[in-house]
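Revision sheet: structure tokens.
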Amino acid sequence: MAADQGIRIADDGVAEVSMTDARANLTQLIRDVRYGGRSAAFTERGARSAYVVPADFYKQALEDRALAAAVVRLLEEMPDELQRDALARDLARYRREFAHET
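Predicted:
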């Protein structure tokens, strides 16, 4: 993406475009997200206000959110004395599972 189009790449690798320049750059921005795998953000007064992310990123975020909610529910149902041991055991299991996925 060219800087002269109103799209700039931030230090964290996210493509940014101001809301003022968004309309003129929307097609290119979406193509870069879809095919380039790069996230993008719309900015207002220099602050990010909304993101465009690849579909796989969004799907994974939903799965991660559901998993986190399940862990919280599990912990809330346990007696306090068991929570510490159960959390440590679950975190170790999640770490092993995550290592095998990546």
